[in-house]
Amino acid sequence: MIGVLKAEIYKILRQSKTLYALAAIFIIEGFVLLSAYYQGTEIIDLLLANLKDSFEFKGDLLNGNLIIYMILNSLWFHIPLILMIVVSGFLTSEYKDRTVEAVLLQPVNKITFIGSKYIVSIIFTVLVVILLAITTFLISYMIFGKGDLVVYLDGLNFYPSNEAFWRLCCAFMVGTVSMLFFSVVSLTFAVFFKDATKTWIVSAIFLVCTNLLLKIDFNNSFWNSFFYSKLIDSWQYYFYYEIPYQTIYLNIAVLIFYCLIISGIGIIVFNRRDL
Q: CA 36, CA 42: separation in Å to the nearest integer?
């Protein structure tokens, strides 16, 4: 397994799609920073329009912490979409180039091969989110500085700079689990569909439907608590005034369980399928 993992990591580092994925993430990050630089004041004025008549605000609310929160919101769609496209390519490219057969002619069994794909996809996803977090914090603080964070969730919530920092860090960590879920799902789609284009389309549809299902109230406490689409926004809970830690921990545990089940299905199907 270690040898196969090393080979998989080497292939990822050599593939141009990895660089394109990182470039796409930086471009999205750059657009958020650019729009905040030129239109951030208007966003703040719109957010606080009703309150400015009754309260006096001092200091610059357009600061690095708010920009980081804005970039965090790319975890809804943009970042998972990029990850799903790239991660599914770890396997679909092997089918296209017919290197799957070449690898399995070596003393490598199917479970080891596909298992290494899932492990590498997890490593890649974690590294991408870490890189996004580091660059976001550094650039945002360098350009916009630090300050209080204002967030509108069930009303306006204000957090001092130090408190905002650890809330943002925790949000990135919990958001990583959501990104892992999407990566595992996309790789499993690749097992079923093999073709890159079909896998990308299905992955995009899955992501869109997931975001739509997130907004639906099923009028059932079980489905509202354990259905997968209700778990992907757990990072948002860190921006409520009272953080529901038990809900966050439960959501993370259930989402990890889903990841294990979905990856297990992918491994079983790949192992039983004739190449």
A: 9
